[in-house]
Amino acid sequence: MCLGFRDRAPPYGRTYTFRRAPQRGKRVPPPFACLLAEPRPVGVHAKGRIALLSVFRSPVHVVGLLDAACASDAPETCGELADWIAGHPHALAARQGQVNGLRTEVCKGGFATACTALGVSYEEGRGVTRAPATAAAWYRAGCYHGDPHGCGRLGVLYALGAGVALDTKQANAPLTGACDQGDGASCRILARQLDASPDGATAALARYDQGCNGGDAPRCYAAAERLAADTSDGDALRQAAVLYHHACTSGIVPACHALGKMYLFGYGVRPDQGRGATLVRTACDGGSLEACADLADVLQHGRGVRVDTREALHLQVWTCDAGVAGACTALAERYQTDLDVDRDRRRARYLLDKACKLGDADA
Predict the structure, then answer these.
(1) pLDDT above 90 covers what percent of the chain?
(2) Are residues 251 and 327 in the same domain?
(3) What residues are paired with 2 via a beta bridge?
(4) Mean pLDDT over residues 223-249, rounded?
(5) Which residues constitute the domain of residue 318?
(6) What is the DSSP string of 21-50?
(7) Domain-embedded: residue 94
(8) Which of 198, 224, 250 is the C-terminal boundary of a domain?
(9) pLDDT attached to residue 195
């Protein structure tokens, strides 16, 4: 007995059928029952594929359904089958040897991502002997069929001279194409290539900015760093603040720290010590030792927050021990002035000497 079931997870809304299992009156979950009830599996492809994978928790069940779809002349599903097997090396250990064979057939059918995946296998030695030259050939095929990741990886091989002759100009062509199609890693690598050339600074910044607009947070941070290097250019600092904000909200901890300092001291933005202190604390909580050292200064002097000399002292001791030169210098000043700790000139001299060895010119 087949009953109706509609996947309500937008934007799919595909209708499946399933039948009541003969044992104990339980229902077989869709779309496995569709495979039992229909001559061809339904809901396997395109958007419905996501609904399919959300139904089953067992990789073996999913692979069984994808197997049937692949056998019924659905080459794109064969690629998905290969990806699913490769993504579950333990549960599907016996089938790992089929991955590259499936991808080869799919690539020959013109599916670019399968070609690129084959290139990764040969470049990293996944299931095959590592062969950069063969990887370059598959990347070239993926790039030809329109996969920007394939173009980007081919450009990297040319830039490194791995499997192909080292050729910077030859590397820039596929990297440029991949970057223009929105591949973030390619834009970042291309920007570094251009940055290394004598007259490529402007072009490099344009690529960093392009990557940032495409949503690549590391490129936002890289572009902001270049703009913020010139502290005399107010327009550049304002643009850097915007880029730092994009990178910070995407989880780039150093960007939060840099933006916090801009708000604390009014570099390129209207001074807002409260917001600056919050950003610096966010960066410290994210693991930045330099941000923790700056947070100690914020707490010690009450920049946008209530003065807390005890936490400030704790942070300075911790970050100095971790090798942050500025924290050692600040801690030495506290031992010299006798404001909130007992004066200890010997310890102050030791800390200044340590800060000097760590590279703090002020020490």
Answers:
(1) 17
(2) no
(3) 19
(4) 82
(5) 308-363
(6) -SSTTPBPPTTHHHHHHSSS--S-SHHHHH
(7) no
(8) 198
(9) 61
Residue the block writes with tokens 């509609």: 6
Q: Rounded to an integer, what distance in angstroms lies between the CA atom of residue 51 and that of residue 35? A: 15
pTM for this predicted structure:
0.49
Scanning the chain, the segments in alpha helix (DSSP H) are 32-37, 46-55, 59-71, 75-86, 99-108, 112-124, 132-144, 148-160, 168-180, 184-196, 201-213, 217-228, 234-249, 253-265, 273-285, 289-301, 309-321, 325-337, 345-357
Q: Which DSSP category does 286 fall into?
A: T
Q: Which amino acid is at 73?
A: D
* pLDDT of res. 308: 92
Model pLDDT for residues 6-25, shown as the tens digit of each residue:
333 333 333 334 333 444 44
Cα(77)–Cα(88) distance, rounded to whole angstroms? 17
pLDDT digits (tens, 9 = 90+) for 123-152: 888 888 888 889 889 988 988 888 888 888
pLDDT tens per residue across span 84-125: 788 777 767 777 788 888 888 888 888 888 888 888 888 888
Domain identity same for 173 and 221 = no
Instruction: Identify the residue whose tokens are 């097997």.
Output: 85
Question: What's 109's DSSP letter?
Answer: T
291: in domain: yes
Lowest mean pLDDT among 20-34, 46-60, 171-185, 309-323: 20-34
Query: Residue 194 maps to which CATH number?
Result: 1.25.40.10
Does residue 226 lie in a domain region?
Answer: yes
Q: Average pLDDT of the chain?
A: 75
What are the structure tokens assigned to 96, written together? Answer: 């790992």
Backbone angles phi, psi at 309, to 5 degrees: -70, -30
> Residue 88: is it exposed, middle or buried by C-beta count within 10 angstroms (0-12/13-18/19+)?
middle
Is there a single domain that holds both residue 325 and residue 301?
no
Query: Are residues 146 and 171 both part of a single domain?
Result: yes
Name every residue whose Cβ is closer than 8 Å to that of residue 319 and which is 6 or more positions away in sequence. Answer: 289, 290, 292, 293, 296, 327
Domain count, the chain: 3
Please report whether residue 73 resides in a domain.
no
